[in-house]
Amino acid sequence: MNKRKSIALVAHDNRKKDLAEWVRYNHGTLRGHDLVCTGTTGRLIEQTLADKLAEEGNGGPVPRVTRLRSGPMGGDQQLGAMIAEGRVDVLIFFWDPMEPQPHDVDVKALLRISVVCNVPVACNRSTADFLISSPLLGRPYLPIAKDYSGYLDRDLE
């Protein structure tokens, strides 16, 4: 991982406001990184950052926000592919534990590939706060990858 990280931001509908508040609070740190968001979350994050920068009245660096499709329309799978390709360093995913999602299988796959690829994941604000305040976020980091060759090489007969 480079010093400048690629941070994925995802939130279910009932958690989008929480994620936007978190981004607003942490905009200074997020300025030094690239953001990847699914669908409407991306639009909300772009607006949150623009509003915060306008409020401050300064022209500091703005994080690049890459917007993918909406989660249920393939955005979770796009993001999972980016993680598998090593193009995402951190996942902040405010998911709603109280509301069943029509794309729960995609959500589970996204969390699974994050674990397989050893990508740090935060699913709530407290964990996201710990992650973003880590000194490792602002410097190069080489994660230790798990060797899954035993799974891939096993005899399936």
Give your account of this protein's structure.
By secondary structure, this protein is α/β, with parallel strands linked by helices. The chain has one domain: Methylglyoxal synthase-like domain (Rossmann fold, 3-Layer(aba) Sandwich), CATH 3.40.50. The protein is built from seven helices and five strands. It has helices spanning 16-25, 27-30, 39-56, 75-84, 104-116, 125-132, 149-153; strands at 6-11, 34-37, 65-67, 90-94, 121-122. Strands 3-2-1-4-5 form a five-stranded parallel beta sheet. β4 (90-94), α5 and β5 form a beta-alpha-beta unit. It is globular, with a radius of gyration of 16 Å. The mean pLDDT is 90.
Give me the side-by-side strand order of the main sheet: 3-2-1-4-5
Give the termini distance in whole angstroms.
Answer: 39 Å
Query: Structural class of the secondary structure composition?
Result: alpha/beta
Which value, in Å, is the CA radius of gyration?
16 Å
> What's the number of domains?
1
Q: State which percent range the strand residues make up.
A: 5-15%
CATH superfamily annotation: Methylglyoxal synthase-like domain
Poorly predicted parts: none
What does the average pLDDT come to? 90
Shape descriptor: globular
- Major sheet characteristics: 5 strands, parallel
CATH topology: Rossmann fold
Number of helical segments?
Answer: 7
Question: What share of residues is helical?
Answer: 40-55%
CATH class: Alpha Beta
Instruction: Provide the CATH architecture.
Output: 3-Layer(aba) Sandwich
Strands, count: 5
Output the helix-strand order.
EHHEHEHEHEHH
